[in-house]
Amino acid sequence: MKILFIISVFLCNIISAQILYVQKTYRLPKFIKESSGICKMPDGKFLTFNDSGNSTDIYVLDNTAQLVNIIKLKGVKNIDWEAVSACDNTVYVADIGNNYNYRNVFELYRFTYNTKEIELIADKITFTYKHNIIQNKNLWGHHYDSEAILCYKNNLYLFSKNRSRPYNGICYLYKINLNNNNVIVPVDSINLGTSGFFSNSVTDAALSPSGKKLALITTKKIFLFYDFDEAYFFKGKYAIFTFDKFTQKEGVCFLNNDTLVVTDENNRFLPGGNMYYYDVGSYFNGCKTYRIPQIEQVYFKITPQNKANEYRCALKIKFSNKFINTDTINIEIHTPEKGKVFLFKTVVINNTCNYVIPFAINKTFATQKLFLRIYHHNKLIYSSKIYNV
Q1: By CB count within 10 A, which of 73, 130, 234, 261 is most buried?
Q2: What's the whole-number mean pLDDT along residues 353-379?
Q3: What is d(CA 263, CA 333) in angstroms, rounded to the nearest whole number?
């Protein structure tokens, strides 16, 4: 019996596709030593700045990190600028850093982007956290720090930076009313993991031009959300990538729907001061394989079922003993044209999942280029093209 399609992947102790390798690196100007946020404007330029205690200058860069212009914001202070986001040409700079929880009044500076002007006056929007009644003035033990905002459909969203002790990995999502004097409370939350501060505490956020992907970055990782409705970002699915190099990454935006632009700070402990390009789209169009380290083997085949040109699919997944047994995984088979076409659920028993799709498929479908995606709850654990052999 001829096998039409087959995948067989064996992993040793190497986590290959989960690590995200830089595509391009450009050096930031020397005076941008603490780039703490970045956003892309409709004209293709990028805005960034230096964070706490520095000037109130906004640096306009091209796509190779070369300086194009400097916009001086007037009537504002840089107590601890940490993020920048834009809806069309309306820009929001967020003075929201609160490492030691010493304050509970925060500012957002709003201005209209215009590269012909070298000085601009910004409006000020203030907000407070409703439940941060007593500031503990401690670096740890609170979740009232933030380094990430997002403008989406003329609404502003803020993502918290976790400083809990013991560390719980929760990121809170807030919606900020663009009228003044906001008192904000979380509208949603997600647990990004308990590996620690550098792995799971958010340093910036960005939305793709299509509005269909959300990137949250930490010093070490990228959490990429997709398949969400409107601003229910955490209700979608997500994939986790590890940066190939450990630096103080604090800025992220999308170059296009498939490429992330990331900036890092430059200091003697973690040398940086660069603009990086990372390709994430290849993991969703089948060009690259995505897998978590707990997957040891994936075996997928489509075989003829009868003379009526019907075919049957079989899938086998072998997990390491670190994966949760008796837990449910979700399986999706995609085609480039139609997207998701088959959805299944199955259970992992004794570190193994054996599954036969319980109905036949026709030859037209069986001979297409297909993509296999496997999820544990909403977390992507495997994605690959199914190769025709």
Answers
A1: 261
A2: 75
A3: 35
